[in-house]
Amino acid sequence: MNEGRNILKRYHAPGLWEDIDGNIHWSLPDVLKHIGVEDTPENRKEAMAAIQELVRNINPSAHLLFRKTPNN
After folding, report:
1. Straight-line distance from the first to the last Cα atom of the chain, in angstroms, rounded to the nearest whole number
2. What pLDDT was estimated at residue 6?
3. pLDDT of residue 59
4. In angstroms, how far apart are the furthest CA atoms of the chain?
5. Of 13, 38, 46, 61, whose CB is crowded by the most CB atoms within 10 A?
6. Residue 31, Cβ density class (10 Å: 0-12 exposed, 13-18 middle, ≥19 buried)
7. What is the DSSP letter of 59?
8. Which helix (H) or strand (E) covers residue 28, if one does?
């Protein structure tokens, strides 16, 4: 298991941070709050799809992992 995935290296923007292994993490509740959108399951789903599309456009081979909490 990746031990560094929950250890903050750099905070880039509201809802966007990097772990000590260089992996980028998105916090959907923080992103939605920052842009003034209610945190609902539907809005999280749409935000996740938009982020996934953005990442795939930049790096089609990027590995995306969606977790309910940082510890699973």
Report:
1. 10
2. 80
3. 93
4. 35
5. 46
6. buried
7. -
8. helix 28-34
